[in-house]
Amino acid sequence: MAAIYSGIYLKLKSSKTSWEDKLKLARFAWVSHQCVLPNKEQVLLDWVSRTLVSNYNKKLELEDEVVEKLWAYLDNVIHSKRLQDLLKSGKTVGLSFPIAQVINKRLSEACSEKTQQNISTLLSCSSGILSTPSLSIIYTAKCELLVDLLNKLSQLACQQLASDDAVSSQLFSVLQLTFAQYLLIQRQQTNTKLVFGQVTSQLLQPCLLLRHLLTVRSWTQADDSHVRQHLSREIQSQMETLLQVGLFQPELFSSYKEELLPEQELQEKKKGGWKTLLLPANTMQTKLGSDFCEPALHGVVVAGSVALLYKLFLDSYCKAENHLVCFHMLSRLFGCLRLSGLQEAGRSDVLSPVDWSTELLALEQLLTLVLSNDIYNVASDRIRHKEVQFHFYRKLAQMLLTHSQASIPAWFRCLKLLVSLNHLIVEPDLDDLVSSAWIDAEASEPRTREPQETLISTIFQTYSKLRQFPRLFEEVLTVICRPAVDELRPSVFSAGLTVKLHECLLELPPNQILDILCLFVEKCQTLVIPAVEQSTDMALKLMSLCLVLHAFLFNMRSLDDVTPGPVVLRTQRLMANIQKGITQPLMELLQAPRREEEKSKLWLRKASDAALLLVYTWVEVDTLFGVGCSKYVSPTAEIAVTEPVAGHWGISAFLPGVTEQCWRRVMELASSFASTSKYCLELLTLQKMKKMLMQTEADVQALQHAAAFILESGRSAMRRGESEPWDGDISMITELSYPTAHWHLVMSNLTILLPYISLKDVEYIAKVLLETLMLAEAQEAATDQEPSISIGKISLGLIHSSLLPEMKVLHCAFLTHLIHQFAVVLPTATRDSVDLPLQQLSVTNVPWHEEILAPCKTVDPFEVPSENKLLKDELSLSWETLEKVAQCIVLLAKNGCPVILKECQLQRCLSLLEIVSLLKLDSFLPSDCTRCFLVLLSLLVNTRASVSCSKLLLLEVLRTCLHLLRCLQAGRSANSVFKVLHASDVLEAVMTSQLAASKFFTDVFTVPVWAQYVQEVQEVLENFLQMIIERRQSVKLNLEKFMSFLVSCRPDTGAAKNKDWKNWNPAAEQLLLTAFTTLCHVVTLHLQQLPEKKLHSVDVFSALLEAVVLQMVRTVEHGLQSNAPNQLLPLAFIPSVTTLLKADLSHPVKDWQKKPSGFLEQPRIKLYQDFYSQIVKELPCAGGNLQFLQLALQFLTVFCSVPELYPEKETAVMVVFAIKKLLSGPAITTQVIRSMEMELTEVLVKVLGNCSAEEFYAIMRLVLQGLEVRNVWQRKAKEVLSAVTLTKLLLSCPLSGDKEKAFWFASPQIITALALQTREACQDQSLISIIVIPILETVAALLRQGEGVLVNPHHVSLAFSILLAVPLDHLKTEEYRGVFLGVHEVLFSIVQCHPKVLLKAAPSFLCSFHRLVVSVMHEGRQKGDRGNMDEFEMVLKCAHLVERMYTHIAAEMEDFTVFSAFMVAQYVTELQKVTLHPAVKAHLTEGIYHILDLCIERDIKFLNASLPAGVREVFKDLYNDYNHYHKAKKQGEEKYTA
User: Which residues, in sequence order, are bridge partners of residue 901?
Assistant: First the structure.
């Protein structure tokens, strides 16, 4: 041994031994048990450390390759299991301090060289050292080395983030570990100034830069996901903690105060005090101002950092008595921004838009912190501090208004915050604010429009509360009357501002509103109207003033009978003044004759817009005042007295002082502009209609003229087909947005217009409605994100509404145009053939609407008989046409001469079918329902796709047709179809066409769309067959005819015998089988529902069912014979055989098993047995095919309900064994099990219900074998899963007698096995979702079902050992959700069903529940970035469950009161460690309040005395909130409780 020892040691020290050999020897010495050196591990670590240190101290000259190998050796040693085992055994092994310096030096070189190629091993070494306590002492004992390491790692991380290379996790993992180590040491440091110095000198700048780069990084898929999702957030959180603890310790506040407060403030607070040398704020300013990164980044990093530093400062020091210090810190940090330089005199605006945006965002964050922390107290600032804060904010406001940035949202938000602080800050510059932020602001983009509206809304709210609204609008008037900055000003009131104005006007005194209106009217009369002619500027001013008048008059509180008389009189004068002083002069101006070239001028257009807007506003408001207030006398009253209203509906009836001739000229001029003028004319006409309808006798002819005028007004614009969205602003209607505004007006007022428009106009509306719907999809894609109105949205709104079905004439016309569009889709060669169904169904000479108009027709009483005869003829003509079309469709289906469509035509058909699906099909009248049915039937039977078409597209068209047919069948007029068609003809036509079409689908009948299509075919057939039976007309004849037809379709019968078998494809076979199955199912169901008295019906349907079954058996047998020997059963056959078996079992002969001549014949039993054997054989292999599994289990449910059907030597145990094999298959997951849990339960209910006691014992043995712990040891996790799932399923089955006793006799063994399985499975993270979560669900079910049965407390207590073994941390989101819910359900089952056991095992329960609470606190802690919203919703749900558990314990378990103080102590101890998200905290707090309800005064005193200092503070806050909110509320509720 000595030779080995001395040889290796000497060779390692010898200069003659090559470095390769030395490294080999060192590796050998470390791993070999033969080499026994005294303190071998420490010797080898010292050797490699000294060698590396000597190399970097230049005492040794080593090649780079050797150095890298030495580092690799050190890394291997640090991470070796041998070293970890030694340290665990208590042996001390350490490293020397110089190695830490060498690591830092190497990292420093990497930083300066800006290369990270050769530092992987170094980072690995650092990670190993920091994560091993005995090695990390080289850093933790010398804090400056750890600070230096953190500095270098942060710089490296910044370099990696700034580069285009993908981000790897190694560097960031080490950085996160280093931060964690430093934070531990930082908290233990007592010298706060030393810590402050370390942080500011070495860590502040790299941390701020790193935080910025992590925030702005555009993460890609190439970047490591762990860094992107977790480490980046964790590191940012650690950096914030580091800066908080390092820069803003409570002990440093005196230094901040002495530095920041002015001298006189200090003299008052501390006389004769000495000034410390530490200037923390100045130090931070210097560090932020120095060049610590690239110039291009510097401003952005500083802007992003000041808000963080200020937030951390406020978190540490913000108290009422410190607000002045907090303000001065704000001014210092603001001084770091480039914005502060703009306040200096003579400085020009040198910031780019991007820089402005960054700086304003920083300023917004600072001001938000000031506002949320109440730093600015107006009274205190004025009285005590000579308005130092006010002057600072005033300068800030002046700077913002001097350098207007209306294109940047943050600019508006900053001004809003200043207004919120104190409106007097902006009051001196109110005109500039109104101009630059509102009237003249170009905030057209949605991202700027929203903050602009918020700012103006805040100003409205502020001046409204102060009752200074007139003062505000004086400034608005002044700004409007200035020369406009741009030729076209934006609208004064957007939709959002109008809503806010409305809210404010409702709160204001009426006289203040009238003051504002009088001010605007006077300005219009004196300044604008005299100079408006030929002046574009004045016309624009006029438009703005009229908009303000419109907004105020429309949104102020209306007059009513309780309005004071003086207000009514003043309003009357105002209305008369508007009419005489503004509208009348404008009408005279507009009616003057002008040349054509003059009419195109902008001033005239704007004057016309303003005038018509004001006229419409005046008329609408005047009418409203007259209706609402009896004291109001309208200027139109004189006209009403002199001329009867019903006979005179000229303009003078609405607008006194305007002649008919003048009005005609104004209308002619306004109609030439597709703008606000034209739209206001339509609104005036609509208002005229409303006034006429308010009279006792309406002038129908005048109403018809008015309705026609409105439609005609926009007809030419709608025909052009060019439009753009409209935002609803009446002043912003352009030539392109006018069609949208016009269509919106028509659609919104259809209920008024429709009774008075001609049939031709109804058809016009229907046509436009359809055309706009067809374009709606493209329009929606372009404007979906905008809150504006588009023609497509308007039309879709009408289609979706419940109004359209009520407008039956329009509904009918719309359907006619829709059918015509289907006819247009047909190829040109067939389009002109009038005999084709679609052409006949959309012809215009058939009165389709007469069914609707008949009850409403007004006829001359002398011509009643002839009119009635004509009406009946028209009605019969429409039904004759429908009958003719129906026969045509049936004939076409039989002859098989379909129309061939190209792919584009099919796509068009599909689009039109989607429009049909938007209609409410159940609201159609009989004739329309029949028409629609025939259209869909025609498409199904009379159209085919060309060979080049997409088969999936054709399938989708057919599926949609079938789906819509099914919807029509569910409608109230569904039976109307039978007026023109025989039921059997429809069924034959559908099946003939679909069987013919199926030849296209031979290679796609395995895709999902095919399954959906077959499902639709089945449901259409089923609905139609049900209707045949329910109508009770020729039921037997129809069903027999349909069955005969299906039989004739088979290739081995009837006319099909001579056809080549090759033409018969699997798709057709599946469709035919589906039809047989549906017929069999419907007849079986009807037979079961027939009362026993109806013996004749029973016999008829039994015979029919027997015939159907016989034919179906042949089809099934042929299908099964043609199936390849090793091929899986076709899916279509399983429901067919299930239906067949149900039909056999439903036969009235109940004892068929005993009668050989019974209904269930021996060959058929053989079919079912063979099918059962095949299902049981395939079941374990079909884990990935959920559809097959569900269908197979449904068959087994029916089969196992009759034990006599089992083949020889087969028992119920074989079925359970097959299910167990299925559940233990590789493709089975918990999600798959959940999807088929219902079917599995139904099978087991039948199996266990009919099996013998011996068979049940065998099944229990099968389950218990799967629960043996050796399965986990042998890595047979799925075996355990299958046994656990079977146990859970057994608990869902009703057991009785010996079976029930056997199960509960085995239950202790089951719960013990589950506890052992859990303990083993929890050691492997991958088994959490596979085994642990199902076990928890099963235990919960076992405890619930075992209420009153599990009498031994020990067996229930075993559940706690399961709960305490389950991990609740370091889980994926889905795993955590499953584990949490599982644990919660087990606990809740014990609380509800086993309260006696709970009291005996209270410590276990409290421990288990406390683990849940802690896990929710950990998952629900507040983070900078909330991350995945679904994850947060899950945490919120878990918090709610914890609250529910607390509430249940408090309400139901009086004996648990003794533990209430302990539960509160546990809660606050954990609460002190984390900052919870408010939503999570709300749930947990509400829950713990209920536990506090149980605490008596002695408990509260005990908690206050025994809790540690920090925790005691948390408890006091909690208890104060409890008294303030919860207890007071509870006492209030108890007061009114009987």
Answer: 945
